[in-house]
Amino acid sequence: MDYQNRAGSRFGGGGVAGYQETNAARRERLKKLALETIDLSKDPYFMKNHLGTYECRLCLTMHANENSYLTHTQGKAHQTNLARRDAMENRKAQRTAPVVQTGLSQSQVPLRKNIMKIGRPGYKASKIRDPETGQFGLRFQLKYPDIQLNVRPRYRIMSAYEQRVEAPDRKFQYLVVAAEPYESVAFKINAHEIDRSPGRFWTYWDAPTYTIQFFFNVDKLS
After folding, report:
1. Residue 160 to residue 188: CA distance in whole angstroms
2. Side-chain-facing half-sphere of 67: CA atoms under 13 Å
3. What are phi and psi of 185, to 5 degrees?
4. Which domains does the chain possess?
5. 22 pLDDT higher than 60
6. What is the model's pLDDT at position 214?
């Protein structure tokens, strides 16, 4: 093939490089740059297997020698997987970062957004009765085995007119419990007046179990 007589080339210059020649030259430059700047002993994804070949643990690819692996690390697939791994690590770090509370009340603690939810907690609801006063009440036990570090579940009693899930019914109210990274759950309960005198309404957090117990100012539950 005559490279010297291509249009636009200078005499003795070898002709204008084509697409394949340009890519080959680019890969060679990237390989030389990687050899000069990358220390494979510090690469967490570089591994030599029992067959004497090399593997990229990030992309799950096989390579015959170190030069082949280095060329792979400069490619689009490896760089894309690196970007995805960095994004995943950043999201994980944000989820595990502790929340500093500075004297705010339970209703004033700001909720963090963009939290990846992992499903609903397990729970058990029981009807109870005080043998001394005859009052009826409810006990809720929720399980949070994968709750974030330094996060404590929170609750709120919500009227039927505050929620937007179903048509309001004044005969009911809602107990809402939230704990990241779990989805918030709500229990539909009778709209009786809750006894908030000392010892009649309490919560207890014994990780991973969160318990809420209270009594109503009535002598029976419908």
Report:
1. 9
2. 5
3. -125, 150
4. 38-95 (no CATH), 115-216 (2.60.40.2690)
5. yes
6. 95
